[in-house]
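Input (structure):
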């Protein structure tokens, strides 16, 4: 399944940057993880770091479509 923001029929293949972007997405593979996210926060006293599991609506963290790094594409409004 292609990313939501990618329509290969509308891609401007005469544009070098668009062609490179499409090739990069397809070469990486559509089922390959983009990266990993570790939720961290301070404890109530602010003395230690803590982490927990996030329960996601879709069962997995789905990034906002785009070419920006993972940290800029987190769906902050849907995180617990």
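Output (sequence):
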């Amino acid at each position: 399944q292609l990313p939501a923001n990618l329509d290969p029929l509308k891609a401007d293949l005469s544009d070098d940057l668009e062609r490179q972007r499409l090739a990069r997405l397809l070469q990486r593979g559509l089922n390959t993880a983009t990266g990993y996210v570790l939720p961290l926060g301070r404890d109530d006293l602010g003395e230690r770091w803590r982490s927990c599991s996030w329960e996601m609506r879709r069962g997995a963290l789905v990034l906002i479509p785009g070419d920006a790094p993972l940290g800029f594409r987190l769906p902050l409004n849907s995180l617990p």
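Notes: The chain is about 15% helix and 5% strand. Strands lie at 41-42, 49-50.
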